[in-house]
Amino acid sequence: MVPPMARYLLFFLLFFQSCGFHLVLGDAQVDTVTLCDTRGCTGKKLDPLSKTISLNVSMKRAPFGTIVASRWYYLQENVPLSIRDRISDLDGAGEVIHAITLPRAGYFRSGRYRIDILINGTKKRTIGFEVGERPSPGGVSKDDTRKVSPKAAGKTDKPAVPSGEKDLLDDDI
Predict the structure, then answer these.
(1) What are the distances in angstroms from CA 143 to CA 131, 137, 140, 153?
(2) Does residue 52 sit within a domain?
């Protein structure tokens, strides 16, 4: 014989299960973390001309209302300078994608970066990556010592500047 309290509990569990509600107990758990640029998810050395750099966080489980955040840093002489914060809500196992887009300068500044992944305000993982050197325009190296005419010297080869605010990744900040 099943006790009456167990019958009620079983009824409510089946009812909520059939309505699409789910109950997840315990802490949120990060499964995998990948970093991608326009070439794909190739590793930790990224292309400075990528339109976006995205962080893919796959969660094994996430109780209702789990907050997944990422804090992006540029490391200047090993000093972390905050450049972006991204925040998402998650109500179950799944994937969260946080991305940063190309800065106003038209390329990502070369150097080392770090991303802290926080779950409900607690740092769970840190991922580091590097952005390679930007290719020189027109294939001309930095050491090239060609002479430039006075007329051409006044012209600058500026990248298209998208609308938006300046940030730490912009060279002219």
Answers:
(1) 21, 13, 8, 17
(2) yes
